Amino acid sequence: MSQVSVSGWAVRRGYTVIPDIAAYGKAVGGGYPLAAVVGRREVMETVAPPGKSLPAYVSGTLSGNPVAAAAGLATIDILEQPGTYDHLFSLGAKMRAKLAEAFESSGHKALVLGVGPIFQVLLPTNDVKLSADQAINYRRIRGLQSDVDDFSSFLLNRGFLYTGRKGYLSTAHDERQVDRAAQAAAEWTATKDSR
CATH number for the domain including 151? Predict the structure, then answer.
């Protein structure tokens, strides 16, 4: 069993470990209510053997929803286009680098984390030492969220949906949005200094 929490469909693609079984939610439907349990044939056939009745009851409120299923297939079609994952991973790396640069150039402490198209900004208080290995332990990073609500509200007022927990890039994003987000981060640091 493999658990790659909050890393989703796109990030899983960047790993060489192939799990026996995996569960995907949200992103697999491109925004529609859809989830998928996927795995190797021999593992999946223990739940749904071909030509036999199911040994386990499998159901859900939206099981078999045709609109969500069509959305999931369309999402897979888009993600399977050549260069899609390269684009997402490259954009994620640029977002993290530009956000880190915006904070660093203003002298504000920030830890910008992420993998693939995912990013997160941690804004510690002055007395917290900053290191990437702190982000491995959830209990340690709670202290690194001192200004995150103010920062995410600032971004929201400038047209960016960032909850302060994690940010996700999609195929709809390009370098212009990355540049605008970095500029908004720089503006936040400037207004933070003036308050």
Answer: 3.90.1150.10
Residue pLDDT, tens place only, 137-146: 666 666 666 6
In this structure, the strands spanning 167-168 and 118-122 are antiparallel
In which domain, by residue range, is 43 found? 8-79
Contact between residue 146 and residue 127 where contact means Cβ atoms under 8 Å apart? no
* Residue 125: φ, ψ to 5°: -75, 165
- Look at residue 3 and tell me if it is in a domain: no
pLDDT, tens only, 16-48 = 677 888 888 777 888 888 888 888 898 888 877
Query: Of 169, 192, 151, 191, which Cα lies nearest the Cα of 27?
Result: 169
Does residue 94 contact residue 175 with C-beta atoms inside 8 Å? yes
Token digits of residue 69? 């299923």
